[in-house]
Design a protein that fits this description.
six-stranded antiparallel β-sheet; four-stranded antiparallel β-sheet; Jelly Rolls; single chain; alpha+beta
Amino acid sequence: MITEDEVLHFQTLGFLQCRQLFSPDEIQALSEAFDAAMERQRGGKPEPVLNQDEHGYSTASQDEIPFFDTDPDAFYPLLDDARILDVFEQLMGSDYIMAAHSAVIYGGGTPWHHDTVAPEGFFSMRAALYLDPLGPEDGCLTVIPGSHFKEFRDALVNTVGNFQHSNQLGINASELPGQYPLVNQPGDVIFMNHKLYHASLKPRPGRRILRVTCVQNTTPEKNREHYDWLVQYLNGITEGHGIIYSDGLLANGGPRCQELMARGLKIGFGTGNLIPSP
């Protein structure tokens, strides 16, 4: 559980870093399972060659969605872990859907960007468990607090553009005022509103992350605009990644995970089919 002050922190700034939710022994086990699963996904081959682009960012990463089915014993418990799900519930309300589980080995840095942007009054978010100690020189997640608010986000887009190079403010991406690096130790979990602008400003390869993505739920009767966006968002995940709720997860996921999936299944999400229009 998190405090009312921590809820307000997330609502105001768009992120919350919960330190040391997982013990060193838990992180060691997850780290070993992560590396073994990623190697299996590569067919036992070594990590891809890291080809740097003209801006110094690597073009080679390994991004697996869905991922937790690669080692159910190691990863399924995360989808039912109260340390994660209690925070989701406090931040999103009791009615939300598990939209994806994923893992990434980053090959380099990332420019300033936000993820998906839901209509006002509605949002999706992720919990990120980084498996490596990361600071500003290591390409840790860096955010622009408050940029999940529309007025601020629109002003940044209109003034700064894509943030990647020099812009109307006369500064480089790495010099953008207001940025906040989230110095991370393994065991921390970072919860982030998808609307928040974020980046990794140093191209250090090999950063490893486990992610759980959730979205608020609604119905056409409650809010048609929100529901239409929800269907579009979930269908986009389906088109990009196919089956999210595997037979194994449906059979072996814990009770809270089952509840989250049931809400998605009720509207047609999770099994690789597009949600029909109501």
